[in-house]
Amino acid sequence: MIGLLSDSHGDLDALDAGHALLSARGARRFFFLGGRFTDVGDWLLRRRTRERGGRAYTDRDFLSDVTAWLSTSEQTERPGAFEEEAASSANDDAIELRSRFSITPERGSLQYLDPTVPTKLMDMLGQSLCCVVHNKNDLTRDDLANATLFLHGAAREPAVVQIGPRYFVTPGALAGAAEQTCGLIDVTDGAPRFTGLRLDGSVLVPPTSLVPERRLPGVKLTVK
Prior knowledge:
There is one protein chain. By secondary structure, this protein is α/β, with parallel strands linked by helices. The protein has a single domain, classed as Metallo-dependent phosphatases (Purple Acid Phosphatase, chain A, domain 2), CATH 3.60.21. It is built from 6 helices and 11 strands. Helix 1 packs across helix 2. The longest helix has 17 residues, at 59-75. The relative contact order is 0.18. Mean pLDDT is 85; it is low at 72-92 and 218-224.
């Protein structure tokens, strides 16, 4: 499963709560869709500080983190989007946890202007080619022609909008909106579904298929 988080705008408590909720529901990878690119790094640093019992971050800690990161990068691969795996104490390590996050920058951030940082990410979710972006206005004609599923931030509430064969999905915002929300994507038989959640765990958008229904030619469907 994939957890969707967006638009925390410095609210690290909301980011922490969203991550905890989605992890408890089975998310093993996370898309952070922008809304302050550096929040994930700040949140991970805070977690690391808590793990050290509040002790100041030293040069020895830095060297230890770099060594661990290099070891992780060389010996392990990032888990698949929907790979089920047993929980372990390593899952709480900040370095390993960072490898589970894919992040897109928002307009106005330094990362958005950095040519080495992609403003959009592409991934396969089940049988659907997915494009991940903070602001859907950044999508180009080529993006719309190639992908069928678009995950985006810059929205105030979770929603699924279908336009023809394409789906535009947002988890809403962790901060700056009437309700703090996040989202979850799971795949059944290759078909992704989206669920929109409040941070208290209540469902705002029930599980919604992100694959167009196939209708038989010449058959007209009506709903009474």
